[in-house]
Amino acid sequence: MTIYRTPDARFEGLPDWPYAPKYLEIAGGLRVHYVDEGAADAQPVLMLHGEPTWSYLYRHMIGPATASGFRVVAPDLIGFGRSDKPLGRGAYSYAAQVVWMRQWIEALDLQNIVLACQDWGSLIGLRLVAEMPERFAGVALSNGGLPEGQPAPRAFAIWRAFSRYSPVFPIGKIVKAGAKRELSPAEIAAYDAPFPTRASKVAARVHPSFVPLGDNVAVPDQKRAWAALEAFDKPFLCCFSDGDPITRGGDALFTARVPGTHGMTHRTLKGGHFIQEDDPAGFVAAIRDVAAASVNR
User: Fold this and answer.
1) Is 16 known to be catalytic?
2) CA within 20 to 30 Å of 94's CA: 32, 140, 201, 210, which one?
3) Could you confirm whether 244 is annotated as catalytic?
4) Residue of 119, 221, 251, 278 marked catalytic
């Protein structure tokens, strides 16, 4: 397997990103990069990014969350950010991402986790909750889902075709288009930083095809995960945005099926798909609510 590691120089001087990189090698020799901030014995908040971003997406949430007394751990998925990037499309799959993140969580022995997730962070994170619910205290979910073979929404079908066929794939501009607030040129460049070559974008290019909408190999795994979530009674809070055409209305699936959603103060945040850019304070407030509710259940 040929692996690409983005040069460290690409990550120097990024705006609002003072965090020292940490690395952990998982099975197969792949190196996962992650941010680890806050007291080591504090309750961990696992902030999982999605497609085509990296942990930089959570830069406006890490500080407020640690100031609230949490330990924040924010990994880069394999193929993204400062983590290793296998250059063959065949190295990637939905199942592989779940296994890689599970190995990373187990290696750090994270317990009593509050999961904060969005986009692919929810596809992977909710599978992890289903597989090892004993490690999780609760979930704050924004603009994500756990599809199990439903038809693809038109907006997602367009995105999937673009990611596959477009001759250019400007990651920073893609993130900009998915946020309501205006990103600065330096912020756009920070999203581009992990991907200096065409080959380094292979994971970002291929992941939309893995989303189990329609006929997809991952559908049986999704159905098993849903069965586990239908028994998950720990706090589960939905905080979707009011301006995301891809996930709008998806919270209803969870409030109807996951018992942990009962009694929680679900809310609508203000922003687009990348809610971490548009309403980070609202997302952090949801995390605090989940943690508080977990003490009382």
Assistant:
1) no
2) 140
3) yes
4) 119
